[in-house]
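Bench notes, afternoon.
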Amino acid sequence: MSDEDYIASLRDRLGLPGIIDIHTHFMPDPVMRKVWGYFDAAGPLVGREWPIAYRDEEQVRLKTLRGFGVRAFTSMVYPHKPDMAAWLNGWTADFAARTPDCLHTATFYPEPGAGEYVRAALTAGVRVFKVHIQVGDFDPGDPLLDEVWGLIQDAGVPVVIHCGSGPAPGRFTGPDPIRALLRRFPRLPLIIAHLGAPEYREFLDIAADHDRVLLDTTMNFTDFFEAADPFPVTEHARLRDFSDRILFGSDFPNIPYPYGHALFALERLDLGADWLRRVLHDNAARIFGIE
């Protein structure tokens, strides 16, 4: 069975109107090509060979994603230095305006003026933020972000945050900086990317203590991820416990395997059709108000 046929069969079996993928990357072309180059070189934040499966032009990637039955997705961007986030936000705002099935995405970095451009993004109707602690190499508790976190907490706009220590640890990755952040901003609607890999148990504990904290499944349970950062079998029951707080993410196009494998990896967990429906569609539809 082809990848496309498997995905269509899964959607039919679950009775899904489509898939909502909350962790996809669309970026300005020069930035995307630099990201691909970093993966090609197996840079220190990657740590191993990582062939890009969907290295295509933007319109081809959009057609591919829609062909899989993805009805809503994101344009995750992230700065690695100052004076970059506002420019990226301008690009993502334009991309969302010309791509109706993309959730308007934005980002930020600890720098003077961050509060100003985050406030502008909120006014413009941003639906989700993306933050990459590993790539940005910053403490989420940096005082330069105090205004930003306050604005986001009050607005209730989710933040997909890569804060686990996989695939390679950073100076500020891991659960402790997030615990400290949530002590100061307890109502932050964080979405922990990659289920917090490899600190799965610790991030599930954080979610248990904070009912606005969600998790995404980006690359989790795939053969590629399980080889390096396997999810503990002893925690599978907790995946059921969080069935209404786990969202599907893929990392498309920057994945080293076919898109359908990410879906198969979730199906083979054997957590039931209702769990899969929630993760692949219903939870994100509820959180982002997708009819």
